[in-house]
Amino acid sequence: MSEVLDVAKKDGRWVECPSCAEIIITRKLQENLWVCHHCNHHFRLGARDRIGLICDEGSFEELALADHAGDENPEDAIRAGKASVKGMPCLLGVMDFSHKGGSMGVAMGRKIVQLMDAAQETGLPLVFFTASGGVRIHEGIWGLFQMLRTVHARDRITRSPVITVFTDPTTGGVTASFAALADVLLAEPGARIGFAGPRVIQTVLRSELPEDFQNAETLLANGLIDRIVPRRDLRDTLFFFLRWF
Asked: Domain check: are 136 and 156 in the same one?
């Protein structure tokens, strides 16, 4: 039986939940929005799947962004555009952890700033779905500079509300810059949200950390986010905020 499961997992017919080790038929998991029906673990989603889940069908329009080499889409770790959620228009930035850990470099910083400037110009609400390991360190000081750059752009927004939806994981310089400066801070259940990783903190403090350290539930209990929203309720929740903003 184990050999059959191994084959089924390799060809994508079955998926093992990383939280509870439950073996789930992939089709059933997709029907449940990639949420484990056994333990409620929220699987990570790529930007394309996230957009398909949140936005009205066919409403997402990518923002063109040309870099110095003439490439209109130089950064795949974030998709930026205009969309609607249950008929409510907004600007949308969706990060993709599967692309270099969703790390924020110069190209991503440029797209984030472009979204923020568009929000200020149009008055449309701006929604970020964050999923990142932090700043793209191999870009050196230019990578680190994106923290200052995005914070400065955030400070210029006076006409539009900003909403951040933290997904697993959101860490490092993304958490420490624009992601935490939204007017409304939401998170998916179980999302890890923090700056330095637990192992680094344990090494520095020389003490053990609780198992729920840096998860969304702990941050909510300590007032660092506003609400935890299950994936099945995200569209309705965003519609509520977009409607009243």
From this structure: yes
